[in-house]
Write a structure and sequence with these properties.
The chain is mainly beta and 74 residues long. The protein has strands at residues 2-5, 12-15, 18-21, 25-29, 35-40, 44-48. The strands form two sheets. The protein has a three-stranded antiparallel β-sheet with strand order 2-1-6, with no helix packed on it. A three-stranded antiparallel β-sheet has the order 3-4-5, with no helix packed on it. Strand 4 (25-29) and strand 5 (35-40) form a beta hairpin. 7% of the residues are buried. The model has no long low-confidence stretch (mean pLDDT 83). Residues 48-57 have a biased composition (Basic and acidic residues). Residues 48-74 are annotated as: Disordered.
Length: 74
Amino acid sequence: MKVVYKPGNTYEEINCFDFREYEHGVVLHNEDGYNIGYVPHDILSHIEPHDGERLEFEDGQPPEPGADDDYDDE
């Protein structure tokens, strides 16, 4: 996947295999699981999957955030 961020006036990109999100940013990993970078949330623009990494959703669109919160609070 490609992580796009803007540390100043221009956008920068880092290719990574995986990432983990934490309170203040995302840690990027390579295929062996090693950390290869960190991008704070305040400069993170977006994360793009490469063509072979795209997911197909049943209705063609990703679920809305919070859509899986339809359980009963008993």
